[in-house]
């Protein structure tokens, strides 16, 4: 097995995205939020997503409900549910997607 390195790309203003690993069935992605107020804009997709907060604080919107999360928190976003976040303290989210997000490659 060969480890492939993926470049970090700008996802939104103040947010970089880097694929950490991928296969057709699963993808792991790092999202770095550089400053307070940086946003992961509201969106939805057919993939099931799990989000883990490595560092920072975030206010998430998930299916119309809002909540705050911090280091060590994680949750699952079902397929098709509208979601997004606002950075309250700079940090990093680790997201997994099943199946892989081909639009990130």
From TrEMBL:
InterPro entries per UniProt: Bacilysin_H2HPP_isomerase, Cupin_2, KdgF, RmlC-like_jellyroll, RmlC_Cupin_sf
Full protein name: Cupin domain-containing protein
Domain of life per record: Bacteria
A Pfam family: Cupin_2
Sequence ranges assigned to domain Cupin type-2 in this UniProt record: 36-95
